[in-house]
Write a structure and sequence with these properties.
By secondary structure, the chain is an alpha+beta fold. It has 2 domains: 5-207, 2-Layer Sandwich (Cytochrome Bc1 Complex, Chain A, domain 1); 229-418, Cytochrome Bc1 Complex, Chain A, domain 1 (2-Layer Sandwich). The protein is built from 15 helices and 11 strands. Strands 1-2-6-3-5-4 form a 6-stranded mixed β-sheet, with helices on both faces. The radius of gyration is 22 Å and the shape is globular.
Length: 421
């Protein structure tokens, strides 16, 4: 796959370029080591709120309309996102428009006004965003699962924050956090696609202006769980949305690629074990998926599904049974090949898009000690054997690592007795 190059600017900011010969589009993604894991209880939600404020106007582009109009005039796509360990700002445009996109992004991050009146207005927007997530259990169950897994710690807090925090934030909170977390010690620039020399020069010129920041590192996740854990969010819904999973490993761990394959085998496709057993054979769910999350210092594998309230126990037992089977039986050669082929095909399709490729390299830069290309990742995947999968399955599928999150009309004590292999 595509080669990349890293240039270090005079202020130590890495500029990662991934040129694609003949590509008509290009993506600029600026990623910052700022997210809910870097917050305190009092500042939880500030990373996400600050992301919103960068779209409210700069000295040069004085309001949302001026900023959005100029971005829209580029004829591309743009957005931002906040996660547990990073915040990103991206623009995808025709390759010739990339210098203009970089000028706007750098202006947003360097010279946003962050006005009190805009902060007060945006509080209502973000509270409605929070309400939207809470009203969608299919989306919200992932946050509830991480709260179950990590508890009242930065790793367990929701990225969007609490209504109390959102309502109480003042302009001084934003300025203090911005000065600490946004600067040359925590910024990475990724350019992917039809990159011309002018775009690289613009990136160097604009982002060399960032000064060194204090940058508060996140506290390390401590894995101390010894018994199964449960977290229930009671909500009047017609089904139970559940997430049943285990602690796994961080990015860069030797088991990373094996656990990724286990997630594909369990619930990564319509031919996966849990899709067949939960949906096709028992009719217990419409959506079924197994996901594998890898952070810089922790990770997990979990299966999510929406099931009938009266059949929740049956669904839990089916998931646990499929987990258990992987610890006792070798995955067959055809099934293992199918999982590897599926992962490779999906990766190739995703990496056709410059924005997806930019996100890949951004995650690598922030979370992994050494950047791994998509091609190198797939080579690691292809080397995994069935016996290695069984070994790692025995390691992670243990009672002491089980976590169950439920959203719906359920009681906390009802399912605890069945949380065992």
């Amino acid at each position: 796959m595509n080669r990349y190059k890293v240039n270090i600017l005079s202020n130590k900011i890495p500029l990662i370029t991934v040129p694609i010969k003949g590509a008509p589009t290009a993506t600029a993604l600026v990623i910052i080591k700022a997210g809910s894991k870097y917050e305190t209880a009092a500042s939880n939600g500030l990373s996400h709120f600050l992301e919103h404020m960068f779209f409210k106007g700069t000295v040069k582009r004085p309001n949302t309309l001026a900023l959005a109009s100029e971005l829209d005039s580029l004829g591309g796509e743009y957005n931002a996102f906040t996660a547990k360990e990073f915040t990103g700002y991206w623009v995808k445009v025709a390759a010739s428009k990339l210098p203009a996109a970089l000028d706007i992004i750098s202006d947003m991050l360097l010279d946003s006004k962050i006005e009190t009146a805009e902060i007060e207005r945006e509080k209502g927007v973000i509270i409605e965003e929070l309400n939207m997530y809470e009203d969608n259990p299919m989306m919200h169950v992932e946050d509830v699962f991480e709260s179950c897994l990590y508890g009242d710690t930065p790793a367990g807090w929701e990225t969007i924050g609490t209504k109390k925090n959102i309502s109480n934030f003042k302009r001084a909170d934003f300025i203090k956090y911005l000065k600490a977390q946004y600067g040359s010690k925590s910024i990475y620039i990724i350019l992917v696609g039809g990159i011309k020399e002018e775009a690289k020069k613009t990136a160097v010129e604009m982002f060399s202006k960032f000064k060194a920041n204090k940058w508060r590192n996140k506290p390390a996740v401590r894995e101390t769980q010894k018994t199964p854990q449960m977290l229930v969010v009671y909500k009047k819904t017609d089904q139970i949305n559940l997430s049943l999973g285990v602690r796994a490993c961080s990015i860069g761990h030797p088991d990373e690629f094996k656990i990724k394959l286990l997630s594909i085998i369990l619930g990564g496709s319509m031919s996966s074990r849990l899709f067949i057993s939960l949906r096709e054979r028992n009719g217990l769910a419409y959506y079924v998926r197994t996901i594998n999350e890898t952070y810089s210092d922790s990770g997990y594998l979990t299966t999510q599904a929406g099931v009938p309230i009266a059949k929740t126990e049956a669904a839990i037992k089916i998931i646990l049974k499929e987990y258990k089977n992987l610890t006792t039986e070798l995955v067959s050669a055809p099934e293992l090949k199918r999982a590897k082929d599926l992962l490779q095909g999906k990766s190739l399709l995703q990496m056709e898009a410059t924005d997806n490729l930019a996100t890949w390299y951004a995650r690598q830069a922030v979370l992994r000690r050494k950047i791994m290309t998509p091609g190198e990742f797939l080579k690691k995947i292809n080397k995994v054997t069935a016996s290695e999968l069984r070994v790692v399955a025995k390691k992670i599928f243990r009672d002491s690592g089980l976590n169950l999150a439920l959203i719906g009309q359920a009681s906390a004590g009802k399912f605890k007795s069945i949380l065992k292999f």
